[in-house]
Amino acid sequence: MTALDESRTSAGTEEFVAALRAHAQRYHHQHPFHVRMNEGRLSREQIRGWVANRYYYQECIPIKDAAILSNCPDPAVRRRWIRRILDHDGTADEPGGIEAWLRLAEAVGLSREEVRDERHVVPGVRFAVDAYVTFARTRPWTEAVASSLTELFAPDLMSRRLAAFEQHYTWVDRKGLAYFRNRLEQAPRDSEHGLQVTTERCRSAAEQERALAALSFKCDVLWSMLDAIDQAHPG
Ligand code: AHQ
Q: pLDDT value at position 1?
């Protein structure tokens, strides 16, 4: 999907950003599984299946970001991008997002072991996540940066998800929701940097088309993960 000038001249920054943001229409907040989640209609088993499968995505995010770092020649970009890895892997003093996701797993009644050993990860989730990591490893680093811009749309979804868990899934210990609270602050910070890099680096029509295609690909990654989870956990 591209909403750029048909004459293939490069778009101005405003038009390019608008075309990136237009991908909100394909973001996974509209996936039936998320719609049912946010309406409080998922069973405990479905919530557990989603948490166990999303763990595979979470543990692969730092690997994806390290791939971008390894392909990026710009120290100023790397200095900002490396924070994403620490956000997930944590530091000596701070547990990161992967630990927070394991605490979410315990809060929904899963053991850390059964989540970490990936026994519940369904093929469609594994293939989608692996495709995302391979994309970051093999495509130009600016395209991998652009693919992370789904996070432009994440804060609204995090807020809705937190409200849904607090209202409908009271059986989940609220301490397990810390991951989503942290993303409310991290996602906007990350997407602001990602958008700045993408608009600065993608100037030609071809570069802008590739950035839009990268974001469209990532929408498909997130959507197909939920297709696979939905099919494996029909409720
Ligand atoms: O928890 C999420 C996360 O750490 C990231 C990293 C980022 C990326 O680099 O692609 N995308 C992302 C996302 C996370 N959570 C998803 C959710 O629905 O909970 C949303 C997802 C994204 O919007 O890409």
A: 46
233 Ramachandran zone, left/alpha/beta (phi>0; psi -120 to 50): beta
Mutation choice for ligand 1 from 150, 159, 229, CB with most ligand atoms inside 8 A = 150
Tens-place pLDDT, residues 114-143: 999 999 999 999 999 999 999 999 999 999
Tell me which of 82, 139, 151 to substitute to probe ligand 1's pocket, judged by most ligand atoms within 8 Å of the beta carbon. Answer: 151
Q: Can you list the domains of the chain with their CATH numbers? A: 32-232 (1.20.910.10)
Q: Is the pTM of this model over 0.70?
A: yes
H helix count then E strand count, the chain:
11, 0
Q: Report the chain's terminal Cα–Cα distance, integer Å.
A: 33
| Interatomic CA distance for residues 197 and 144, integer angstroms | 11
